[in-house]
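sorry to bug you again but im stuck and you know this stuff better than me. what follows is a protein written twice so to speak, once as letters and once as structure tokens for the fold. mainly i need to know what kind of three dimensional shape the backbone takes. anything you notice is useful, everything is just below:
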Amino acid sequence: TGAYEGAADDCHRALQCTVAMPATGGLDSGPVFRSKISCRMARALLKAGNVWEADKAFDSAIGSAKEALQLVAQSNAGAEETRAAEKILNQSITDATLGLSDVKRYRDALDGATKITADNANNKGMSVAADRRNSVQLLMFINSALSVSPGSMELHERKVNALASLKRWAELGNHCERLAAEMVKIDGIFTDDLAPLNPFPDIKAATSLKPDFFERNPDNAADPVALRILSPKAVCDAVMRLPNGILPLYLRSLRLEERYTEAAKAGASIEMHVNNSKHRGTRGIVPLAWLSNERDKLRRTMSWKERGDTLFRNGDYERAATKYAACLTIDGDVSQYNQNALENDDAGGRLHAVLHCNRAACLMALKRYREAVKECTASLRIHTHYMKAILRRGRCFVMLRQFNEAVAEYER
């Protein structure tokens, strides 16, 4: 958002430097230039999410351009200069009119999002399916608003929250990392008079996160942009460039997608930066209670899952299944795992898909195939194409002599 605000600020200064008098001036001054700069400032404000100011600036640009057209018609300028001025002014009117339509599109999207949020608040008892439909619609409205105002950190935060409610943790992490890569592009720009607009002051230039990481070879089928993830070192650069409101869910996404090294390094980087007296206060007050809680969850997740793996390798399948179940409750509101896997409210993510699949393996070893089927189904609800879960459920169907279901699994 800082880049768009910086552009708007520069446009405002340019307007103050122009010749504001009832004369056409040259193409680089006077009403012609003012209309062009007003339109550019409005567009920058809209990109930053300052919609109310953008609306006023677009209206001002149209008014200035229309007044300037009258002045041009009455001037004694040559035919060529007159045509050039009229072309610029008419283009300004067209651009500003399109800008106003974008303002309306933004407001319509935001109104839609606000209505869904209010509906969710007023209908606490709605079904899981209805809640999910509302969350998907909410995300669509937020994406529409972001297409108009990509620099609005408030919208990015709302998108991250919407993705979290849908338990789309991989997509959430990808969005945060792409946002951070965009922010790297403005490293070193906010100096001198632009310093007050720096969204993240006292942050060193990125050393591992490259601004074009998600832009290189966009058509590479072997390395799709949506599946790219940052290295642990690049993640340390990324967390320094994310808004405070996004950080807790980003770190949670790293853990739930089993990116444990990245999650640990990200937490350490945040704590080190916030505790550094030199930087204290530069990002506002960042309460560290959530960070301590998340790091504790990371420690328990890694420890309990590893303990379950060890028990499984040693043939202690009952205790391994119990340990995996305990790991599944770390992100829940309950401490007791429901043995009917399909009735648990999972946090989602690759981690929970793996844990359910691991429990299925334990139950298969104990010849409890019906329970194992439910665990595989719970896993596949999270990751539809998780091959281990598909194969294990198919084997369970065979053991239960449900051959049609088994064939269907193997033919997926």
